[in-house]
């Protein structure tokens, strides 16, 4: 099943598709409610939603980011391969929809970067879950762009400001349920900046797999339905290039997580 939230008749409405027919929730149920176990009443949507109608699918309670989780990224940056996942918070308030504007305040940051990622949506409350059981708590998957202020990361040493600014986490357009994703470790990830391909990788290159990341996070924190784990990004970020490339007002950034979703966001200034 594929779930999204669309702008319909001046309100946001939960929609779902089984691959052939789109339906809408008629009782105000949100996608977060469904992830938590709600069973809404469905009625036919009558047409396929268009790309511009999709909004933020839902606002995750907690977003866990994972850094340096691709072998090609570690090589590109010249870092040592991490022994355990590099974990950081991505603020819930940073989440925006798949076509919303990314707002860059140049008084705060001038080194804004892209990071296309596979996001894992947790569907079951869990703590200290074993790797062998971890896939059982996955509700589904979502496309994500972990926008990052590299100058703030470098200044602080830790990554809260650099990762958590408003609009710095486009999500969606859809959440694809786990039963439709046969091989989460074989998903292509691509990014285009102003139409030029800048990232082209695969989740097969992950250092820590999806179940390993879930298990690791659950050792320290209780995971709740709707929480999202961002699983890292392939090589090709702008800040690792020579010369460095940073997002500027007027740029467009498009990401594709194969079989999960595509986004197209415009960068605007403040």
Description:
The protein is mainly beta and 270 residues long. The chain folds into 2 domains: 52 residues, no CATH class; 207 residues, Fumarylacetoacetate hydrolase, domain 2. The chain is built from 5 helices and 18 strands. The strands form 3 sheets. Strands 1, 2, 3, 4, 5, 6, 7, 10, 11, 13 and 16 form an 11-stranded mixed beta sheet that branches. It has a 5-stranded mixed beta sheet with strand order 8-18-17-14-15, with no helix packed on it. β2 and β3 form a beta hairpin. The chain is globular and about 50 Å long. It starts with a strand and ends with a strand. GO terms for molecular function: hydrolase activity. It comes from Nocardia jiangxiensis. This is Fumarylacetoacetate hydrolase family protein.
């Amino acid at each position: 099943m594929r779930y999204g939230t669309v702008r319909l008749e001046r309100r946001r409405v939960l929609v779902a598709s089984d691959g052939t027919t789109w339906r809408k929730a008629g009782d105000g149920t949100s996608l977060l409610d469904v992830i938590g176990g709600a069973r809404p009443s469905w009625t036919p949507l009558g047409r396929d939603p268009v790309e511009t109608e999709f909004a933020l699918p839902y606002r995750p309670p907690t977003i866990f980011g994972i850094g340096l989780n691709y072998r090609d990224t570690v090589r590109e940056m010249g870092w040592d391969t991490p022994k355990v996942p590099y974990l950081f918070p991505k603020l819930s308030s940073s989440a925006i929809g798949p076509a919303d504007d990314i707002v860059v305040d140049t008084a705060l940051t001038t080194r804004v970067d892209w990071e296309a990622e596979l996001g894992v949506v947790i569907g079951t409350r869990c703590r200290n879950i074993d790797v062998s059981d971890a896939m059982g708590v996955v509700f589904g998957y979502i496309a994500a762009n972990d926008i990052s202020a590299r100058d703030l990361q470098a200044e602080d040493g830790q990554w809260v400001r650099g990762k958590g600014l408003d609009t710095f986490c486009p999500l969606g357009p859809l959440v694809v349920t786990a039963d439709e994703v046969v091989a989460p470790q074989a998903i292509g990830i691509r990014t285009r900046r102003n139409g030029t391909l800048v990232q082209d990788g695969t989740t097969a290159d992950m250092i820590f797999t999806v179940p390993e990341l879930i298990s690791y996070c659950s050792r320290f924190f209780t995971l709740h339905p709707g929480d999202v784990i961002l699983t890292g990004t392939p090589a090709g970020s702008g800040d690792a290039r020579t010369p460095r490339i940073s997002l500027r007002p007027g740029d467009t950034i498009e990401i594709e997580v194969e079989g999960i979703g595509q986004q197209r966001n415009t960068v605007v200034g403040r």
